[in-house]
Amino acid sequence: MIRTLALILTFQLAGEITSRGLGLPLPGPVVGLIALVLACILRPALAEAIRPTTTGLLSHLSLFFVPAGVGIVAHWDLLRDQGLGLAVALMGSTLLAIAAGAWAFTAVARLTGSEEREALRDQGRE
Amino acid sequence: MSDPVLIWSYLAQEPLLWLTATLLAYLGGDAVSRGLGRASWANPVLIAVILLAVLLGVTGTDYATYFEGAQFVHFMLGPATVALALPLYDNLPRVRRAALPMLAGLLAGSGVAVVSALLIARGFGIEGSVLASLAPKSTTAPVAIGIAEQLGGQPTLTAALVLLTGIFGAIVVTPLLNALKIRDWRARGFAVGVAAHGIGTARAFQVNATAGAFSGIGMGLNAVLTAIIAPVALRLMGG
User: Fold this and answer.
1) Does B141 touch chain A (CB under 8 A)?
2) Disulfide check for B84: which of A48, B177, B216, B228 has CB 3.0–4.6 Å away?
3) Alpha-carbon distance B18 to B65, whole Å?
């Protein structure tokens, strides 16, 4: 576990240095993510070595958003001032964006014949 | 026996209390979400945030004190983002096959997220720095704050809007895409990653591994595209 954490932190650090050094629009962790994918392609054994700890981290991805989420309360005054407009804009645009993204994805998948039977949601489940 | 006030004043200064409270609130939120069969409205982040907000209010603790303890959890956002490399690597052949659908989903989702948010807000008479803070709200928090700062927005307001967007997206994605009869897990995950970043991705992983992998990719790609789209859209709308 400590080996995997050290490895992940090293990739994050390298990503942070690259992102800031080159002035990339991507944050350090996203650069680290891309670098780690490349490292796994070069050395498939690496993917298996990091799997247990990585899977554990990702199964609790929600946890890591909690402290920032509590910050909403700290900024409540800011939000309340423009409350209605911000709420409608936020909810409306999120609904539209999810619908547009999913629709465009499936439409182009159908057009280009890149549909996957095994990626379909079972009817009646969940 | 020591004075309870002394014990409290000691605890209130230490990270231990709020770090523990954050983990317990999350476990509580996660247990409720699990108990309700991962019902979309029982979002674990939302439940934990409400529990902690009430606790902070009752104890008269300010956010800065809370964050002293919670920062250790907050820090893990970075490593968790790097960890998304593994599901991406596992799904690489499928990702390659889905390159064109992903490109379409990215352009549609990212463009609609920015443009519709600005149009609706403008309709309510919102302008200036608040409008600039809203533009990148579908992007992952560190990128969104960077974009908002460049556009003359308020970083703290942006952070709050990003979090609210993520929670809302994670709650509505399942009923919305069921109603639209979108059955492709790749499309469902990708769309929520583009529109609702990491919190949407956390939701996608709860529901389906394929959706989670594609959601992580959607989140990463949207971070890049929003950095390009948001300044142009804001300028066009006279923000």
Assistant:
1) yes
2) B216
3) 8
